[in-house]
Design a protein that fits this description.
Length: 352
């Protein structure tokens, strides 16, 4: 073998490589052209990373890939006729991002996603270049309130690389944190405490107050000493209020609250100012089939029986309505049971 043949054989040995499609290789950036990034991976010719496989639309190739610096790439096409390999950096980033997502799912971590689109049935999000989907049922906010580019705290529900299935939940973040918060609140709360809360929901039977992790119920009857038709008469969603804890059910994790307990008991004042036989002017607050309730002292209601209501209507030749002011007499007064019976006849009150 001649010296030239030996030199050529040695040269071939330098390029005795076995690069294949799907291999992860290291390469040094050596330049840029109209196709993308030129990379030296130790093959016979310079490999190419097409722009679409190098950067996203808004990214700059030269800023992301510094000349002379080494990076990892994935071979996506073996040598062509010119001996060039085609590489991808985005698929490497995707693979590493997917591994990080698998770790986050295993640890049940909360991750931050960027809203990429609001579609029917949910929201598309992007996390480290990976697209995922948040169904409407897993959103805490309404889809109409979300905007592209906004951020969402998320937890991973399902993650399947082979099926490219990536489902997340925004609601679970708050549900899980609420469970922990409930434990903390229930370990500290007890009847008699006065606590601060936010009005988060109003119903016909009362209001739900967020106590910092748990929602306590403020029943309609505990809103005020005065008669309240509906909680919205005195409360609005978003109000910050002080309430007293009146009952705690640890087993069912329920808390009952009172607003009126923070006000002076008007019956104690009424006892000082009212006695049986007194003539009082009051305002009708409710009319039932068995009679009319009349506020005879601020926060104190008394009952005028149905027969007495009919008698008064006949005398005044009118139909009594809520809000009407009427003169009555105290027939019976039981401050211990918080009950007062009224009559429209002075003689009846005197007989008692």
């Amino acid at each position: 073998m001649t010296s030239k043949e030996l030199d050529f054989e040695e040269l071939l040995k330098q390029y005795d490589y076995k690069f294949q499609k799907g291999d992860l290789v290291k390469g040094i950036v050596c330049g840029y052209d109209g196709q993308g990034v030129m990379v030296d991976i130790g093959a016979k010719t310079i490999a190419v990373v097409p722009t679409r496989e190098a950067v996203d639309k808004d990214e700059n190739v030269e800023k992301k890939f510094e000349k002379g610096k080494e990076y990892e790439f994935l071979i996506i096409r073996e040598e062509d006729e010119d001996g060039k390999f085609l590489l991808s950096r985005k698929k490497v980033d995707f693979a590493y991002a997917w591994k990080e997502l698998e770790k986050a799912k295993e640890a049940d971590e909360t991750i931050l996603g960027t809203i990429a689109g609001v579609v029917k049935g949910g929201v598309l999000v992007e996390i480290s270049g990976v697209r995922g989907f948040v169904p409407s049922s897993q959103l805490r906010a309404k889809e109409s309130d979300l905007e592209v580019g906004g951020k969402l705290e998320l937890k991973i529900l399902t993650l399947d690389a082979q099926q490219n299935n990536f489902i997340l939940s925004n609601k679970k973040v708050y549900d899980d944190s609420a469970v922990e918060a409930r434990k903390n609140v229930f370990s500290q709360i007890e009847p008699g405490q006065v606590v601060k809360g936010d009005v988060v929901r109003i119903t016909d039977f009362g209001a739900f107050i967020d106590l910092g992790g748990i929602d306590g119920l403020l029943p309609l009857s505990q809103l005020s000493w005065r008669w309240i038709d509906h909680p919205t008469d005195i409360l609005n969603v978003g109000d910050k209020i002080d309430v007293e804890v009146i009952a705690v059910d640890h087993e069912k994790q329920r808390v009952s609250l009172s607003l009126k307990n923070l006000e002076p008991d008007p019956w104690l004042e009424a006892e000082k100012n009212i006695k049986e036989g007194d003539k009082v002017e009051g305002t009708i607050t409710r009319i039932k089939h068995f009679g009319a309730f009349v506020e005879v002292f601020p926060g104190v209601e008394a009952l005028l029986p149905h027969a007495e209501v009919v008698e008064l209507q006949n005398k005044k030749d009118c139909i009594l309505q809520v809000g009407d002011k009427i003169d009555t007499y105290i027939l019976k007064f039981n401050p211990a049971d918080k009950r007062i019976a009224l009559t429209v006849n002075e003689e009846n009150s005197s007989e008692e």
